[in-house]
Structure formats: structure tokens, C-alpha cells
Amino acid sequence: MTKAPRRATLIFDGRCGVCTRFVRVMKWLDRDQRVTAVPCQKPGVPASVGLTAEACRKAAWAVTPEGARYRGAEALNLVVAVALGTNFPCAFYRLPLVRRVQDRVYDWIAVNRQRLPGDEPHCAQYPGECA
User: What's the number of domains the chain is made of?
Assistant: First the structure.
């Protein structure tokens, strides 16, 4: 990713409290509502952006209006960049050491997310949205 797009969709695990907390913070940062966050459990969401349910269970995804897809730490950097209207998070992530560290931290959190503190999961708050 060379420059952050003006809009993005974040596909996240709606059964994850850590993921739900990230979405809440990102929405707080996104004063101009440039990022749309949807749980991967919402019927039809993975297929609508060319992903499988399995891929969405393993990681968060950011999808641009042009159809570009970003996974994991890169996806989170992208949505923060879009929310803030700056390319800084994307540029910072492109640094090799930063990328390696962020990817490893993201992967560890993804594997252990059910054991970590977070908000009440999105699907528990809005069960009608989740299959």
C-alpha cells in the first residue's frame, strides 16, 4: 500500500472482545466516518469482498472501494490511516522492522484473543447481525 485510500471497510471477528474494542476506538478516531466496520459473522459479508469465512476467522481484513484487501496488522494500520485521514500509519508499517514486529504481535493477539480482555463482543451486543 503506497497511500491510504479515502475510505475502507473493516471486516472483524464480531465474537471477539479485543476486536470489538479496536472497532470502538477506531470509530472514536474516525470523526468523518470514513471506515465502515462489519463483523465477519454477518451473513454474506466474507463472500461480498471475495474472502472465505475461514480467512475472516483467522484475521481482520480491510477492503478498499477499489477491491484491494489487506490482512492483519496491515489492515489495522490501513483503517487507522483512513480514520485519521493521514498516511502515517501506512508509511510507518512499511518499515521492515516495524512490519515484522507488528505482524508478530498481531498474530499472537489473534491466536490468544479469546483469553484477552476486551469489550462485550459485537455479536453479543447485536445478535441479529450475526449468523
Answer: 1
| 1 within domain boundaries | no
Cα 131 to Cα 129: distance, rounded to the nearest angstrom: 7
- The answer to whether the predicted template modeling score (pTM) of the entire model surpasses 0.90 is yes
d(CA 4, CA 111): 27
User: Residue 46 is part of which domain span?
Assistant: 8-122
- The helix (H) or strand (E) run that includes residue 106 is helix 96-112
Dmax of the chain from CA atoms?
Answer: 41
Each residue of 90-115: pLDDT tens digit?
999 999 999 999 999 999 999 999 99
In a 3-state reduction of DSSP, which class is residue 81?
helix
Question: How does pLDDT run across 111-123, given as a tens digit for each residue?
Answer: 999 999 999 999 9
